[in-house]
Amino acid sequence: MNMEAFVLGCGGMMPLPYRHLTSVLLRRDGDLFLFDGGEGTQVSLKRLNLKWKKINAIFVSHTHADHVTGLPGILMLSAQVDRTEPLYIFGPPKIAEYIETSRKVLDMYINYPIIVKEITAPGVVYEGDGFYVRAFPLEHTKVCVGYTLEELDRPGEFNPEEAERLNIPRGPLWGKLQKGESIINSDGIEIKPEQVVGKARSGRKFSFVTDTMYLPSIAKEVQGSDLLICEGMFADDCADQAKEKKHMTSRQSAVIARDSGSKKMALIHYSPRYTDKDLEILAAQAREVYPGTILTKDRMHFEIPYED
After folding, report:
1. PANTHER family this protein is in (predicted)?
2. What pLDDT, on a 0 to 100 scale, did the predictor assign at position 228?
3. Looking at the structure, do residues 55 and 93 belong to the same domain, yes or no?
4. 211 annotated ligand binder
């Protein structure tokens, strides 16, 4: 089962000609999940030629303009295809008002159900086949949340050679063992799943954190992420400004990546004061703490493979 992330925009505050505003699309086989939708989201989706009009759910960190102004266009263009499946939208308080007002003022033609759910407490907000999405609190100038998409553990690998050695005929009995059920083999002997199935294998974890001051609690929330997308808005010399505006420096983001044991951390949501060349300063400072730091750019693609 494939999982991959596409950075649709990596900028913060205002769009630049070469940098759209913050948005990430996560694809898990046929399921599509959008994390924030800043200005320019549709442009990157089009340039990546992604079949995105049947997004399952949108997860909004907060209702500042640079994270939601791309959403009305997403809702309208999604109506250009036939769909009966609802589109779920999650976010902190006021996201429902923003969506409803946009639909009303723009006279949107919508031919599918839109279900908006406001997050008032941390916990699981969405569940699917073999995974769930959890929201957790951040600290910004208005209510803001981070998200993790976590897969459930997968069954261990089935050992067909051992099954044959234990006189278990191919067919339904193999399936029962893989589902965790004990069976009786051809010799009338009970065979337990652990005799032919290895240990459970871990699933994958994707985390999205943006627009927050540094909090030690974030590392615990994103613990063990295969891919952590994390804001790194300022360099060290702007630490006071970052604190005042409740943002993070790239070095603080790296501390979260290090302390959480994340396998990969990609910076996002840069201040427009930094040109693409200047971004290397953010990367260098982060890499002093977390050497594997990656700078995201618009339309960057990340594969998220199983560890095994």
Report:
1. ZINC PHOSPHODIESTERASE ELAC PROTEIN 1
2. 98
3. yes
4. yes
Domain-ending residue, one of 195, 218, 250 = 195
**Residue 145 and residue 137 in contact, taking contact as beta carbons nearer than 8 Å:** yes
Looking at residue 79, what is its pLDDT? 84
Domain that holds residue 184: 160-195
Once rounded to an integer, what is the mean pLDDT over residues 132-143?
Answer: 97
Taking 80 as the threshold, does the pLDDT of residue 51 lie above it?
Answer: no
Residue 148 and residue 53: Cα distance in Å, rounded?
A: 23
- Residues 65 and 208 reside in one and the same domain: yes
| Number of domains the chain contains | 2
pTM recorded for the entire structure: 0.90
301 annotated binding-site participant: no
User: In residues, how long is the chain?
Assistant: 308
Residue 252 maps to which CATH number?
A: 3.60.15.10
Task: Say yes or no: 187 and 47 in one domain.
Answer: no
- Coil vs helix vs strand at 215: coil
Under 8 Å between Cβ of 37 and 61: no
The percentage of residues in the chain with a pLDDT greater than 90, rounded to a whole number, is 72
Q: Are residues 179 and 248 in the same domain?
A: no
Question: Exactly one of 66, 129, 237, 298 is catalytic; which is it?
Answer: 66
Rounded CA-CA distance 17/40 in Å is 10
Asked whether residue 269 is marked as a ligand-binding residue, the answer is yes
Compute the distance between CA of residue 112 and CA of residue 126 in angstroms, rounded to an integer: 19
**Is residue 62 marked as binding?**
yes
Q: What is the pLDDT of residue 264?
A: 97
> Which pair of tokens denotes residue 77?
């263009």
- Are residues 166 and 280 located together in one domain of the fold? no
* pLDDT tens digits along 181-197: 888 888 888 888 888 88
66-75 pLDDT, tens digit each: 999 999 999 9
Residue 64 is assigned to a ligand binding site: yes
Give yes or no: 276 in active site: no
